[in-house]
Amino acid sequence: MSKKTQNPETLLLHAGHRADPTTGSVAVPIYQTTSYQFKSTEHAANLFSLSELGNIYTRIMNPTCDVLEQRITALEGGAAALAVSSGQAASAISIQNIAKVGDNIVSSTDLYGGTWNLFNNTLKDQGIEVRFVDPSDPANFKRATDTKTRAYYAETLPNPKLNVFPISEVAKIGRELGIPLIMDNTAAPILCRPFEHGAAVIVYSTTKYIGGHGTSIGGLLVDGGNFPWQDYAERQPALNQPDPSYHGAIWVKAVEPIGPVAYIIKARTTLLRDLGSAFSPFNAFQVIQGLETLPLRMREHCSNAQKVADFLSKHASVINVIYPGIQHGAHKTNADQYLSGGYGGLVGFELDGGKASGQKFIDALELFYHVANIGDTRSLAIHPASTTHSQLSPDEQLSTGVSEGYVRLSIGIEHIDDIIADLDQALNKSV
Ligand code: PLP
């Protein structure tokens, strides 16, 4: 069976590693080393000039991280990947890799609060403007574009609104203008395959479903190898003009012998080198364990979340339930077009009694953990207005979909009867 025809369940167990060539170890070894012995001065020079690929220093590459990178590349059908220290680092690097002072990107308003802060404050301070647009009309991306626009950015399944992003519509607009669509697929691994819909780069926080067990912070960038950077020399100068930080390399040309990996090689050899947001080999090992069961876990997260959404919809003290599986109209159409195998593990709802009820509900939970996280095997709950979205102004909170009484659930893989029993008893105490 060729790799191309293998399914996620198989790829995530076998891609990138069969057995350690030195020891025969079947489990992926943790290469806990900072540096690598060069075979000769010529070998060292070749590695530094990129005429030969190999290990130099763990800030830039590591064999354990390499297996993780190869597995996620195989899963997504991309060209290559880069593991970095967190999802936040992945988001920042995804933009900094192609946008400089004076440039801009256009982003969906529907974003994780941390990404919103990164875009609205830190990137702005660094001279990169982020233009936020309402994703419900894909043409908004085109309207906000000018000659300095280097990328479009969005999340597949952004919480709290949980409106699935119109990936192919926006990717198509971008491709006509030489602008890549970068998709944060953190909330929908396995369920959504952004490259099949025209995205050029995928960003993940592996901290969530991919790691899955709540043990390790991490991030990934995956290069689809499907974007013609070389055809847009003016639009994409970072990959088409000589890079003074790498002896004048023109990235689209420098990678020609290797493949269509200009974007990811530049990110590794310049930004990871300079910013140092390296992924630890130990965390890579943990995340590899998570990847092995990701398809199984996603099935269970989705099945449980659908049942929770159905239960909440019938509960007297709940005024609104947000879950892609029970949406109507354009949002449901998008959910059906871009997600397959389920509608994800996140469920939002609003309680009749607003903020006070929301807080009482959270305090009454016994099985659910009250944490600022999603995508764990365990069920989690949070009140975003007072936590994850508290650094945003009230207007900004509302524009991202957070009302005072909104509660976000990340449904785990416990038995569904136990999940519903806990929700039921906490709801009864919230009135
Ligand atoms: N993207 C999304 C959709 C997230 O939910 C998060 C974190 O919650 C991040 C990115 C940032 O990831 P990390 O916490 O690993 O830095």
Describe this structure in words.
With 431 residues, this protein is α/β, with parallel strands linked by helices. It contains 15 helices and twelve strands. The protein has helices spanning 8-14, 41-49, 63-76, 87-96, 113-125, 139-143, 167-177, 237-240, 251-254, 262-275, 281-313, 329-338, 354-364, 394-399, 416-429; strands spanning 80-84, 104-108, 129-133, 149-155, 181-184, 201-205, 219-223, 318-322, 346-351, 369-370, 380-382, 406-410. Strands 1-7-6-5-4-2-3 form a seven-stranded mixed sheet, with helices on both faces. A five-stranded mixed sheet has the order 8-9-12-11-10. Strand 2, helix 5 and strand 3 (129-133) form a beta-alpha-beta unit. The longest helix has 33 residues, at 281-313. The radius of gyration is 22 Å and the shape is globular. The protein starts with 7 loop residues before the first helix and ends with a helix.
- Number of H/I helices: 15
Largest sheet entry: 7 strands, mixed
Structural class: alpha/beta
Shape: globular
| Bound ligands | pyridoxal-5'-phosphate
Distance between the termini: 57 Å
The helix content, as a percent range, equals: 25-40%
Strand order of the largest sheet: 1-7-6-5-4-2-3
What is the typical, i.e. mean, pLDDT?
95
Instruction: Tally the beta strands.
Output: 12
Give the oligomer, counting copies of the same chain as homo and different chains as hetero: single chain
Order of helices and strands: HHHEHEHEHEHEEEHHHHEHEHEEHEH
**Radius of gyration of CA atoms, rounded to a whole number:** 22 Å
Task: List the uncertain runs.
Answer: none
How much of the polypeptide forms β-strand, as a percent range?
5-15%
